[in-house]
Amino acid sequence: MNRRVFLLSGVAGLASRAAVAQAHRPVRVACAADLKFAMDEVAEAFRRETGQAVEPVYGSSGNFRRQIAQGAPFEMFFSADESFVFALADERLTIDRGALYAIGRVVIAIPTGSPLKADPSLFDLGAALRDGRLGRFAIANPEHAPYGRAAEQALRHQGLWEAIRTRLVLGENVAQAAQFAMGGGAQGGIIAQSLALAPQLARLGSHALIPAEWHEPLRQRMALLRSATPTAHAFYDYVQSTPARALFHRYGFVLPGE
Amino acid sequence: MADRGARARGLQVELAQAGPIPLDARFECVAGELLALVGPSGSGKSTILRAIAGLYRPGKARVTVNGEHWSDSATRVHWPPYRRRVGLVFQSYALFPHLTALENLTVAMGERPASDRVDRASRLLSMMQLEGLAQRRPGELSGGQQQRVAVARALARDPDVLLLDEPFSAVDRATRHSLHAEIISLCRSLDLPVVLVTHDMAEAALLADRMVVLDRGRTLQQGTPEEVTTRPETEEVARLVDVTNVFSGAVSAPTLEDGLPTLDWAGLRLELARRPEATEGSPLRWAIPDGFILLHRVDRPSRGQRENPVACTIVAMAATGQTCQVRLDPIHAPGQWIKLSLPLHVVRRNGLVPGLGITVSLLAEGIHILRGDGWPAPRGP
Amino acid sequence: MDWQAFTISFQLGLATVAVLLPLGVLVGRWLAYSEFRGKAFVETLFALPLVLPPTVLGYYLLVAFGKASPLGQVWASLTGNSLVFSFEGLLLASIIVNLPFAIQPMQRAFEAIPQDVRDAASVSGLTALAALRRIEIPLAWPGILTGLTLTFAHTLGEFGVVLMVGGSIPGETRTAAIAIYDRVQAFDERGAGLMAAVLLVISLLALGFTAMLSRKAGGRRG
Predict the structure, then answer these.
(1) Higher model confidence: residue C183 or residue B178?
(2) Which residues pair with B38 in a beta bridge?
(3) pLDDT in tens, B224-235
(4) Given an 8 Å threshold on Cβ–Cβ distance, is C186 in contact with A175?
(5) How many domains does chain C have?
(6) Domain, as residue range, for C146
(7) B200, B191 in Cβ contact below 8 A?
(8) d(CA C203, CA C208)
(9) Interface present between B and C (3 or more CB pairs within 8 Å)
């Protein structure tokens, strides 16, 4: 008797899942992790204005580029690095070569209580390395996260990379790096400004903008993928509209055209 | 001599293979007969039972029951066990632990209509003196009760042949005696061939109508218990049936009176009761079962013919319970010990102690010449 | 608190159990009662997911049914979707990964039935199927249920393989375990803590249940 109940619920579960999937397929949008809080707001604004919903999924741009090439069910891709979008476009996985939607900035972020100082010149960081104040320092993984690459470039620019390498804790994407930096695991880190400005993080410590010349520009590009539905198209347009741009601006993004 | 009709009913078994378990067995069992398969551990007795039941498939096999071929390797016939109407009582009982005693029986009654089963199972349980235990699980039954359920389950199948695998090995002495009586009366009332496997020679002799002596899968000798234990054919069989007094000798010229040849045992002439087949002078081995060795009362010399007195010295004595194992060294043949089992009261009454000289009689009817190489093979089963 | 993730986790668990019930019983029984050359190899093969690092498993599964693989392409032509990053792909991976969790307890349960009892069933007129139904499964069911419970619990907790083969697609492949990871990254301590607590309670219940089952199995032998 118990066995039968088990079996039936399993089959019912599968069937219901399939039914739901058919009836209401959400518009999934792959978003670079630095967009975590900004994109939530933009999506909410879009819903309020048009009644249509998109579902942002956050992760590292490099990961998404791989997953999309493998056929992951996304309709749009917001990358933190143009080259990923171009690569997908070359593979004919996007409908066109997309559009630049924002330019990102990195900050050094220090949680309250850390022995480090939010010094944008990174001199304090260097001093901390030498005098032993530094335990661990968080950045995103430079291999596939654009913000991690930018962090590495900035550290190299200041001649700190070789010394700090062994002290780094790498986040799988810049949001995880932010969690490591501000959540108590490390003494600080270099993360996306858009994350540092979000209220959830801003109250955990302080941050300072790192000069944009110290790293390659974080040109964030978006593109519609082959499976894009009308809703996705609508969102694509919305992101370039004034209210959306204002939202991005609040999160510290530099907008195309500025 | 047995009529064709009776032989066609009953069990006929022929099994042969070289390995992995060597087999070379051939025997029959008619309805109403209790046949014991006897032999030491590893002699293949259980394998033979399993082959009859269809649980084992030897290289060459022919098992016929009431005229039906259950196995016939020549025509590639091998009925699976569930098709054979066989009742098998396992040494470990092998009751279904999750079913009640009643259910253990009804599950074996697949061919009967459901309404019949409970009735018949209840009657079987009563027959085996298990009333009131129908709803108990095997775990709640004693060893003896479990065994009875196992027998009842075997009978529930309405079998054409009943097989019992060492049924008393797990049972204590006292219970064993009462079970013996029950088994005998049960077999009388059923009209089935019953094959019982045991390593206990005494038990086989007690229960069986006929015995088959086995060693390493080979049938060595068959016959009634009396035939097999008093006239073992070979030294091997003698050893297996616990006839331990085996000696060397040769046929020699008869004494004048009745013309029967005598047996020369290390110089001593023993009188025989039957004409031997061996030629005079050729060396042979002979045996005498315990029952034909009589202790002389110390004060009374032997008289009468065919009593073969032998003077000995008591070498060793070992008491086991109410009997005493005595070893005697014949004066004419030192070293060829006679082994004897005597009740303790006889030992005491005669004041037997090691070193004492006594005389025993080797009764001529018990002296049996063993078959050796070159002898003609025995006739028939 | 991500209820959708729990729903996916439960659906995945139940579906895996539904497939592995007949599969586990048949394979477990086959391994328990057959002797053949290469049996040790087959048993090792089924046990592999127990010791392989989940990412190794995930990697090979990706190779086996990613976009470029024959299986992936067949699936894509049949359904228009990719097998990876879909619930169905996750289910397939989950079945493979849980084979030893289902098979081993079931195999042990069948092995524990004495050969004599099985012979007695045969000799009492039961065909192989009847013996399976009336003797073997009633005696083996604690082990069968243990296998299913372990499978279910293990599916709920599986992370590495799910992440690699499924990604973390909400509503599709984001299971509860993945969602906890996601909540932490999103600085949602409360959500993460709540979900972790629920999974902890479920795991404890599963362990308690299997412990009770093994006591029941032990008692029966008496």
Answers:
(1) C183
(2) B198, B213
(3) 999 998 889 888
(4) yes
(5) 1
(6) 3-221
(7) no
(8) 9
(9) yes
Mutation pick from C185, C188, C190, C209 vs chain A, by most beta carbons of A within 10 Å, is C185
- pLDDT for res A128: 92
- Nearest chain C Cα to B150, which residue? C120
A87 and A113 share one domain: no
* Closest of A66, A75, A78 to residue A39, by C-alpha: A78
- For residue C18, the chain A residues in CB contact (below 8 A) are 6-7, 10-11, 14
| Domain of residue A238, residue span | 2-103+218-250
Tokens of C97: 């990964």
Domains of chain B: 4-238 (3.40.50.300), 246-369 (2.40.50.100)
Which residues of chain A, if any, have pLDDT below 50?
A: 1, 22-23
What pTM value is reported for the model?
A: 0.78
Q: Is the C-alpha dihedral spanning A212, A215, A219, A225 positive or negative?
A: negative
pLDDT by residue (tens digit) across B170-218? Answer: 777 777 887 888 888 888 888 899 999 998 888 888 889 999 999 888 9
User: Do the chains contact at C11 and A13, CB–CB below 8 Å?
Assistant: yes
Looking at the fold, whether A98 and A222 belong to one and the same domain comes out as yes
Residue A257 lies in a domain: no
**Residues in chain B, pLDDT under 50:** 1-4, 374-381
Point out which residues pair with B36 in neighbouring strands. B196, B211
Question: How many independent structural domains does chain A possess?
Answer: 2
CATH of the domain at C43: 1.10.3720.10
**The CA-based dihedral angle spanning residues C121, C124, C127, C133, taken in that order and rounded to the nearest 10 degrees:** -50
**C-chain residues near A53 (CB < 8 A):** none
Please name the member of B50, B98, B157 whose beta carbon is closest to the beta carbon of C124: B157
Encoded tokens for C91: 């289910």
What does the DSSP 8-state code read for residue B81? G
Residue at A255 is within a domain: no
pLDDT band, very low/low/confident/very high, at C111 (cuts 50, 70, 90): very high
Q: Which residues contact B248 (CB under 8 A, 6 or more apart)?
A: B265, B266, B283, B284, B285, B286
pLDDT at residue C33 in the model: 93
For B:110-149, CB contacts with C below 8 A are 110-111, 139
pLDDT value, residue A228: 92
- Partner-chain contact B157 C123, CB within 8 Å: yes
Using CA atoms, how far apart are residues A126 and A109, in angstroms rounded to an integer? Answer: 15
What pLDDT, on the 0 to 100 scale, is given for residue B2? 46
Strands B11-17, B262-265: pairing kind = unpaired
Q: Identify the CATH number of the domain in which residue A43 sits.
A: 3.40.190.10
Query: What does the pLDDT read at residue C222?
Result: 40
Residue from C123, C132, C134 whose CB has the most chain B CBs within 10 Å, to mutate: C123
Provide, as residue numbers in chain C, all residues whose Cβ is less than 8 Å from the Cβ of A183: 187
Among B63, B78, B85, B88, most C C-beta atoms within 10 A, so best to mutate, is: B88
Q: Is residue A136 part of a domain?
A: yes
For B229, phi then psi, to 5°, come to -85, -25
Say if residue A205 is in the same domain as residue A238: no
So what's the pLDDT on residue A175? 92
Same domain, A39 and A74: yes
Asked whether residue A208 is domain-assigned, the answer is yes
